[in-house]
Amino acid sequence: MERFLSDWPDLAPGMIDGLLAPPAFIAGAGSTNTYIHQRLAGRLGIQPRFAETLNAGATYGAMVSRAVLAIEAGLCNAVLCVGVGKFPSVHADGAAISTLVGDPEFELCYGASIPAMYAMVAQRFMHRRGTTRDQLSAVAVSAREWALTNPDAYMHGRGPLTLADVPASRPIATPFHRFDCSVPCEGGGALLIVKGASVDRASTSAAYIVGIGETHYHAPISEIAEPTATGLAECAQQAFKMSGLSPKQISIAQLYDAFTITPIMQLEEFGFVEPGAGGEFFESDATGPGGTLPVNTFGGLLSFGHTGDSSGMSFFVEAAQQVMGLAGKRQVDNVDTALVHTYGGILTDNVTVILRREP
């Protein structure tokens, strides 16, 4: 080890951009600190672009990234990515869930819960960018509109939502009400990722992976200086740079929506709209059926359902189906490109993937 480090006399934490940290060896048996890479990145002052263990909601974005890396490195030709899950009961396991993403010294000791931690992000972002209560509601309304076109969505048969329905639902953590929060359920999905050269383009529909971005900037919410310092923008910029595309060239977007604030944040941070215009964009119906940028065309976590860590899989399945023209009644016309973003923790692990009809 000393011999290796002697070749890097100026090595500093900021130069490290990869982190592999298996929880079984670091967290210890019986520990709830599953996402150990989040803790280490924050404590060591590094911001890796490549991290491995369990990436919570971003797990399947990272899985797609690893599959591409393995295929390009010649380690394999086809990778099957599979995910199934069941969101734990909030009443039975809510405290245990919070311990996975909250800091025991600075957050959990004060009774912090996941909705409350996201609520703090929402309130600060709304203060900075001017997002309104009705604009949060518009995110839930848009997701439900898409769910009504998707028979597999958990809320498919529950009818439409109005802007007034959302704040009238049960309060959770200001500014969130029940319909601002994703719907716990169970489910699963799978993706097959293969070498592009092996796809028979004459007979097989395909969605080509043309851009990938990844950031891991912090762990607990108390480490975030501002909601705009979570790595969202940098993550998308990496994917856009790799793909050679710009936000204006994206046909549809699948944006991880555990709470109504996060799709608004993503639209703004990714450059789809100007800062402060994300809520207005949802309010204008631009994200719903027939809109200029359809978002979460399967209903998202808000209305399709949230299956815990495996929920990220649903975004990739939907994006691939849309690009391949296989989305049935909810198929959007002329989909050439799709952006998928999934995150884990409190906007901790971020992965952006861009798909395209042609390589």
Adjacency order of strands in the biggest sheet? 7-10-9-8
Q: What level of helicity do the residues show? A: 25-40%
Oligomeric nature of the chains? single chain
Rg estimate, integer Å: 20 Å
Number of strands: 10
Annotated CATH topology: Peroxisomal Thiolase, Chain A, domain 1
**What is the H/E string?**
HEHHEHEHHHHEEEEHEHHHHEE
Question: How many helix segments?
Answer: 13
List keywords for this structure.
single chain; about 350 residues; globular; disordered N terminus
Descriptive notes:
A four-stranded mixed β-sheet has the order 7-10-9-8. It has a two-stranded parallel ribbon with strand order 1-2. A two-stranded antiparallel sheet has the order 3-6. The chain contains 13 helices and ten strands. It has a single domain (25-356), classed as Peroxisomal Thiolase, Chain A, domain 1 (3-Layer(aba) Sandwich), CATH 3.40.47.10. Mean pLDDT is 85; it is low at 1-6, 24-31 and 90-94. The relative contact order is 0.19. The protein is 35% helix and 16% strand. It is of the alpha/beta class and 359 residues long.
